[in-house]
Amino acid sequence: LGFIENPSVQAELTYRTVATDELVLVVAPGHPWAHTAPSTEEVVETALVTREAGSGTRSVYESAVAAAGFGLPPTPLLEVSSTTAIKSAVAAGIGGAVLSSLAVATELAAGSLIGVPLPDLSLHRDLRAIWRSGREPSGPAAELLTVAGSIQP
């Protein structure tokens, strides 16, 4: 049993959506976008701090940008392999980033990161439990699947 946020699931896996999440653009409190919301076009034309290619968060953002008719975003300003590293880079003023609202809830509440609205992009995603097709989870894995599906973010 595993959990993914990527929009695609390999054919040999079965999945169940256990929650939904929304991505949010975040910037440091001193960033210009923290005080004056940019246009969606300005954001999608700006290099951001991102996860590595293939990560669920980056895939959802790139798909939303393309679906809104903007094409692909530019090469990232900085590409790192962890959400914690992205949050640190954004808080240090390196640039903005699009991250899970669940992952930045504490920083948004504390004011160390500022959320910037992007009303022209659909940044919702499904969080899924996955397992090998033909083998339903049992025992502790089935219990974990039940608990995961009952949690409301």
**N/C terminus separation:** 20 Å
Question: Which oligomeric state applies?
Answer: single chain
Rg, Å, rounded:
17 Å
Query: What's the architecture in CATH terms?
Result: 3-Layer(aba) Sandwich
What is the string of SSEs from the N terminus onward? EEHEHEHEHEEH
CATH class: Alpha Beta
Query: The biggest beta sheet, please?
Result: 5 strands, antiparallel
Strand content: 15-25%
Mean of pLDDT:
92
Uncertain stretches of 5 or more adjacent residues: none
Question: Got a strand count?
Answer: 7
Shape: globular
Total helical elements: 5
Tally of individual domains = 1
According to CATH, the fold-level topology is D-Maltodextrin-Binding Protein, domain 2
Summed up:
The chain has 153 residues and is an alpha+beta fold.
Helix/strand layout:
Layout: E1 2-4, E2 13-27, H1 40-44, E3 49-50, H2 56-67, E4 78-79, H3 83-91, E5 97-100, H4 105-110, E6 114-116, E7 124-132, H5 140-150
Parallel strand pairs: 3-4
Antiparallel strand pairs: 1-7, 2-5, 2-6, 2-7
